[in-house]
Design brief:
Elements lengths: L1 H9 L6 E4 L5 H8 L3 E4 L5 H8 L4 E4 L4 H9 L5 H20 L8 E6 L3 H4 L8 H15 L13 E6 L1 E2 L2 H4 L6 E2 L5 E5 L7 E4 L1 H12 L12 E3 L2 E3 L1 H12 L3 E5 L4 H5 L4 H14 L22 H6 L12
Parallel strand pairs: 1-2, 3-4, 4-5, 5-10, 6-9, 8-12
Antiparallel strand pairs: 7-8, 9-11
Helix pairs in contact: 1-9, 3-5, 4-5, 5-7
The chain binds NADP nicotinamide-adenine-dinucleotide phosphate.
Keywords: NADP, Oxidoreductase
Protein name: NmrA-like domain-containing protein
InterPro entries: NAD(P)-bd_dom_sf, NmrA-like, NmrA-like_oxidored
Length: 321
C-alpha cells in the first residue's frame, strides 16, 4: 500500500496498477477510488501475473512468508518452515517468469529480497527459511535466461532489502515491549545489546525507497542491493525511545542462550538462529549495499521516536494476566 501511495505522490504522471487476490476488498476499493487500476492476480497462478504485468514499465514485487507459515503452523504441518519456503520460492519464480514476458516495456523490476544468510555465514546458518527463500528467488532472477530478443530480467532488476520492520514491535509476540510479572518494562530477545539493527516503518516508508529507485536506471546501481531503513538502532536504544515517549523505564534484556528455543517449541529455535546470525554477521550479512542517501530518497522517513509516538502502547505495558 505504501508503495502505491508514495509513488502516486512522487510520480503523478505514472499510471498505477495494483495486483490483489481480491479486487473487492476494502483496501482495493480505497485504491480504486484514488484512481489506481486494481486487477485480480495470484502469485501462485503465473498466467494471471503475465496478464497483470503486460505492458508495465516498472514492477515492484514482494512475497509474503509469514501468513502462509502461520497457516501451516496452526494446521499442524510437520515442517511449516520448509513448506513455506518452498511455496515462497515457487511464487517468486512465477513473478520473475511473468515479469520476463514484458521486457520490451520494462525498465525497472524492483524485488523485495534479503541477503543470503547461508552464504554470509559461510554455511553455518541454514535454517532461516523466511530469508533463504528470498535469496533463492534473487539467485533465480540472476540466472534467468534472456528472452528471444536477448533481454535479461536481471538487467532491469533492483534488489530492495527491507530493514527490521518497526511494526514488529506491534505484530510479533517476541518483539513486543511488555510488563513482566516482576513489574519491569522490557524488550527481550537473544540479540546482543550493542548490535545495530536497521529499522524501517514498512507500512509508510517502503514507497519512498521505491519512488526514489524509479529515478535511477537499474544499471547505474551496478548490481548493488539497496537497503530500505530510516534509522539504525540497537535494541537498547529502541528501549530508550519507549522510555522517553511512554514515560516508563523500559529496558532491553538479552535473553540467555537457549531460552527462546525452549519457550517457543517448533519456532523458537529458528528465531534464535536468526538473532545469532545478526550477532555474528550483522543485519545485511556484511554485504556492500546502497542506502537512502545514495539513491536520494525524497520525503520524510519515519524516525523510531516518531513511530513510537504514533502508536498506543498502553496494552503492551498493562499488568500481565
Ligand atoms: N518483519 C520484518 O522485519 C521484515 C523485514 C524484511 C522483510 N520482511 C518480509 O516482508 C514480508 C511481509 O511483508 P508485509 O508484512 O508487508 O506483507 P503483507 O502486509 O501481509 O502484504 C502481503 C501482500 O501480498 C499480497 N499477497 C499475498 N499472497 C498473495 C498471492 N498468493 N497472490 C497475490 N498477492 C498476494 C497481499 O495482497 P492481497 O491480500 O490483496 O492479495 C498483500 O498485499 C515477509 O515475506 C517478510 O519476510 C519482513
Amino acid at each position: 500500500m505504501s508503495v502505491i501511495e508514495r509513488v502516486r505522490e512522487q510520480h503523478p504522471a505514472l499510471k498505477l496498477r495494483g495486483l490483489t487476490r481480491n479486487p473487492d476488498s476494502l483496501a482495493s476499493q480505497l485504491l480504486k477510488a484514488k484512481g489506481v487500476e486494481m486487477v485480480a492476480a495470484d502469485m501462485s497462478d503465473e498466467e494471471s501475473l503475465v496478464a497483470a504485468f503486460k505492458g508495465a514499465t516498472a514492477i515492484f514485487a514482494m512475497t509474503d512468508f509469514w501468513k502462509p507459515f502461520f497457516a501451516h503452523l496452526s494446521s499442524g504441518h510437520p515442517d511449516p518452515w520448509v513448506v513455506s519456503e518452498t511455496e515462497e520460492v515457487d511464487k517468486g519464480k512465477k513473478i520473475a517468469q511473468a515479469a520476463a514476458t514484458t521486457l520490451s516495456t520494462l525498465t525497472h523490476f524492483i524485488f523485495s529480497s534479503l541477503p543470503d544468510p547461508v552464504r554470509s555465514s559461510g554455511g553455518r546458518i541454514r535454517t532461516l527459511a523466511h530469508i533463504n527463500g528470498k535469496a533463492k528467488i534473487s539467485q533465480y532472477i540472476e540466472n534467468l535466461s534472456p528472452d528471444p530478443e536477448g533481454r535479461k530480467l536481471a538487467d532491469v532488476t533492483i534488489s530492495l532489502w527491507c530493514g527490521y520492520f518497526m511494526e514488529n514491535y506491534i505484530e510479533f509476540d517476541i518483539n513486543k515491549p511488555r510488563k513482566r510479572a516482576d513489574g519491569a518494562f522490557v524488550i527481550s530477545n537473544p540479540a546482543n545489546p550493542s548490535i545495530p539493527i536497521p529499522h524501517l516503518a514498512a507500512r509508510n516508508d517502503v514507497g519512498l525507497f521505491v519512488s526514489a529507485l524509479l529515478n535511477h536506471p537499474p544499471q547505474s546501481l551496478k548490481g548493488k542491493p539497496v537497503v530500505a531503513a530510516s534509522t539504525t538502532l540497537t535494541y537498547k536504544e529502541a528501549a530508550a525511545n519507549f522510555s522517553k515517549v511512554c514515560g516508563y523505564k523500559v529496558k532491553y534484556e538479552q535473553m540467555p542462550a537457549g531460552q527462546l528455543t525452549r519457550s517457543l517449541p517448533g519456532i523458537g529455535a529458528v528465531f534464535e538462529d536468526m538473532f545469532n546470525y545478526l550477532n555474528d554477521f550483522g543485519f545485511w550479512g556484511n554485504m556492500e549495499t546502497l542506502n537512502a542517501d545514495d539513491i536520494q530518497v525524497k520525503g520524510n522517513l519515519t524516525t523510531f521516536e516518531d513511530f513510537v509516538r504514533q502508536h498506543d502502547w498502553a496494552r503492551f505495558f498493562a499488568d500481565p494476566e
